[in-house]
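[Amino acid chain]
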Amino acid sequence: MPGRERDYILLEKPPFRYHHPFVDIAEVAGTRRLYYGQWLWFDFSPAGGKIARSYAAIFDDGAMVVETGAGELEEVGIRLRRVPAEKPESRWPTWAIKKFLDGEPPNPDEMDVYDLCKRAYENYIDYGDEWGASMLMSLYTIQSYLTPIFSTLGYIGISGPKRSGKSKNLDVAEQVCFNPVKAVNLTAASLFRIVDGYRATVLIDESDFKSPERHRDILIMLRAGYRRGEYVVRQAKVQKKGEEKFKEELFDVFGPKILVVPEGIEEMLRDRCIMINMQRTANPSITRRYVDPRDPIWEDIRAHLYYFGLKHWREVEQEYMRLDPGEISGREYEKWAPLLALAKVFGVYDDLYKYALEKIHETYLDEEAEAPAIKLLRICLHIYNQEKDEYTDQKPVLSASQIAEKAEELLGREKWIKPGTIGNLMTNVFGFNRRPWKRVKHGTAVYVLDPKKLKALAKRYNVDPDNPLEA
């Protein structure tokens, strides 16, 4: 109310920021620092005997803040946003944590973590013609430890026939990725809460899609988890003054996800994936080899991954911010940019870029087999190339019916080749929705095949404007 004496002070900034318990970037004493959170066992009495488990944040400068209930984290400006009720065993081996705190580098060097991951995947999985798949999986594994850096994270989608090693990719990833969680047997609420609470790397097998309810919940998470800042909203029952009410809960499900994709997966989800196409191996030793979680190699690889993350996150972030993606743009750039930034750091950029272009080309070929819009663009370019010599100061002008006739001459009868569909695509997809590209002639809408607009569309859809009918 005007004139009322205020008994509060509006703070210009909060006294602390909410942070993630497992990995985040915090500003400590004016400096941005990446940290990993762990629940560890400590002896709190000098003479020994007072042993307890406490949360510790281990920072990139070698400092460790142990929360004992006295507000140690808030003293450095951190408050944990949501602390999981469970206190999981540390994925970062205690012996490796002590070495890091003592300033002792790993052996081999932390930059060898890429080769360690790559050999691990290749030791258990035969990728056949997918020559860059082990490189991709290794960089994706390392990427999972640096989620706070990135704005978008594409998913890895794995397809192939039975007994081609699809699920074994998940078995290896479970040993080396950051806080992995398999979706099997988890309710939707549990899955969302675990992904949020642990900043988990989600591993999804094709069997998880079989139940319609499970399929729906997983798709909700995958649609929201691709881009930072998008949340899954759920209604939770609460008891308030003896009454059952509902409150909204927001779950942050942004992060890395590896899934074995079933046939017929929706196009929007496939668009978020970098696809790996598996083949059956002819190598019997690979077939017989199984992933043993007790193998000490996994601890060693994870020790290198944590160390690399803390020591090189700024280098990765700089490469990410200044990345020149060349021919890669749009959604493909969003998927590949974090991996390309890591590839720069490890000196494998040229190889990954070549592999990325091949995978993107595969995607375009898949779209070409399905997308009427791209076929229509090819037809329009072909019509222009065939008829441009007949025009001097003007451009080809055709109705949807005339374009449909040309398309049927070239492609035969296809369901999409009808004036209504073509008119909708020309107007709502290609932007031929107003002058000078769309006019009305004798009561019929006609489209002006302007070469500049067609060539701009050709570049966007990766179509050769001079030879448009060639894939």
